[in-house]
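I am sending you the entry underneath: sequence plus fold tokens. Let me know what the token row says about the fold:
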Amino acid sequence: MPTTMLATMVIAFALSISVAVAIGLASLVGAWQANLNFIAVVKEMFSAIDKFPLAAIPFFILAGNLMESGGISTRLVEFAKSIVGGVQGGLGATCVLTCMIFAAVSGSSVATTFAIGSILVPALIRHGYPTNYAAALQATSAELGVIIPPSIPMILYGVSAEVSIGELFIAGFGPGLLIGGALMLFVVLYARWKGYGKGDHDGRLPFLTAARRAALALLMPVIVLGGIYGGVFTPTEASVVAVFYALIVGVLVYRETRIADLPRVLTKSVISSAVIMFIIANAGLFSYLITRAGVPAKIGAFLVDTLQSPELFLLGVNAALFVIGMFIETSASIIVLAPILAPVAAHFGIDPVHFGVIMIVNLALGMITPPFGVNLFAACMIARISLDQIVTRLIPFVLVVLACLMVITYVPGLSLGLRDLVYK
């Protein structure tokens, strides 16, 4: 059965069928082979999405879209530029820093790509950066949207592996700051080497002016994350708070979101949420079938016998996840693989929170690697270029993130230090 399911999924991918539908078709074939009652099929699909923490996903997506339409993202760009935009290559660093701040509320890399990229990609091109470089930088920077909390993939991992979402959130700060800092250093040095961005300081506001204009925008992640870690509300409830805050600021304070804009924003958010939930439902059925067939136990036994140490296990998992992330959407990969790999990691004595961060950072690379990198498609849409034009520019960015991934993998204190300080 698992072999037939895998073959069905590969054939569907080859026919350019979407990931969600491919997983669903493979699951239906597996259910038919296993003589599973189709009432049970519906039950498993419903059970996969009938989890309270998943309610945070549509609300964080809606919050990100409201931030984009309400002028919050524009003010965050101005604030970031006032900090790092005064040097050659500073506009590229501004892109990274803005994505880091925006990620602290949106939880979605695709939302970050559109919200920030629609402002910064044209600005980078006007300042003399090559179009494909600007698109590659934006796609890579937006990856931070799934690493810095709150993060939709972290919620999915927490639900799938039965790990505290709050602990995952706080464990993401160190890796997120490491990757963001490394990317900013790289883009500044690269710009000086290539001669890009000599006029990046043009239009830069004084820090205090930019901070005053962005004060309410900057207060948003403080309220959301402060409420979570202060015990005021859960991560799921925080997503609702983020929506109301973005709505009030965008409509009543900045007045850049009109009432007439709300149907468009809601429609966009509903479509994005429905796609993710459809993937989760199909992946939940897929995970149930392969677990029923004993695949996780066999894979676990194989990994334990083959990879004799935690270091080798992590290296093997990183290599496998890097390849998987190129072909399978991040959410689906987490839901299918987390229940399989997390128990094996625990067998090797690896903290499940640390392993979750490794898994999310690794699969996030799939968002910027062909052929199915969702951030790439979003960035190419903004820059109006084809996917093949961006690939060569991505290589140095991918290498920077891979170097950071190795540090995150083998220095667990980077992820767990703050977690242990807060929770223990």
Remarks:
- The chain has one domain: 52-423.
- The chain has a mean pLDDT of 83.
- Residues 52-423 form one domain.
